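Need residues for this backbone.
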């Protein structure tokens, strides 16, 4: 699969999670394991470019799953206690 990743910092350059960025953008084929999850958690925009559906249906970082679903919450062991 091919993806376009956009940094939350415009104009960012360098390597992040094994991906080279130029001017805040990177296009990669078959990203390293866990890289897309890493980028999404840190506010990057991730677009899937290999789209087999109709135009305009690309998945982005805000698409967590099928409509009407929401991601699982944190487990009680992972929540902060004051």
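Answer:
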């Amino acid at each position: 699969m091919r993806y376009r990743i956009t940094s939350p910092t415009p104009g960012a350059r360098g390597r992040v999670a094994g991906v080279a960025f130029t001017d805040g953008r990177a296009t990669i084929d078959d990203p390293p394991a866990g890289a897309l999850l890493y980028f999404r958690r840190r506010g990057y925009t991730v677009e899937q470019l290999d789209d087999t559906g109709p135009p305009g249906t690309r998945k982005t970082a805000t698409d967590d799953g099928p409509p009407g679903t929401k991601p699982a919450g944190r487990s009680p062991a992972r929540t902060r206690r004051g």
